[in-house]
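Page 42, continued from yesterday. The earlier attempt failed because a stray header line got pasted into the input along with the sequence. Redoing it now with the clean sequence only.
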Amino acid sequence: MKHVLVLDSDQTIVMSVADFLGQHAIRTTPVAESRQLRRILSTEIVDALLIEVNSQDGIDVVRNMASITAAPILIISGERTAEDHKVEGLEAGASDYICSPFGKKELLARLNVAMRDRPIVERDRRSYSFSGSELFVQQKALRRPGLDEVKLTTAEFNLLTAFLGAPRQILSRERLLAASRIHSGEIFDRSLDALILRLRRKIERDPAKPNLIKTVRGSGYLFDSDVLYDDRPRLKR
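This time it went through. Structure tokens are written below.
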């Protein structure tokens, strides 16, 4: 389901728009103050923003939001607006400019076009969950049930994330060597086996009888578990 933020001082309009968009599989989050926009954008995937603009403050909000998110911004103006004002809003970063009164079907159509043409949202992965364990990306740390947090080396972390990004797929030795940044010119191919062994000791219940990282003879290795991801949007820098 698509997710749209709506910043408008007229709550009657906001609720009416939210109800209509909800009927077309678009989730709407009403926002009372502009400062809430950044907080939501940093924690949730947002597909578009509808922002009321009736003053220079509104233009400033559009400009600020356009600087941190690639999500399309549609300006809603409460009255017919001079061409110069529309140009200013578009130059501030808006994808479209809609003047009241407008029809809900027109709003939906413009919104769908803006979302269709938007770039793919970049995301930061916060964590992976698998078989009761959780890998925290920023800390490069593994939390296993009933155990203290397990620290991973950079090579172990890179190798594990390669597995978690392709669960139940056979990964070749060459791909795993590249993922773990072990260069064949520096370290022999068999170093991968030693790295796999160290990683098994940290994630398997019984490293001697691995259930997660399985050897596929003649092909490579396979990570045999369901994997869940916890993503957040990546804001512009």
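Notes: The two ends are 27 Å apart (CA to CA).
Reminder to self: strip header lines before submitting.
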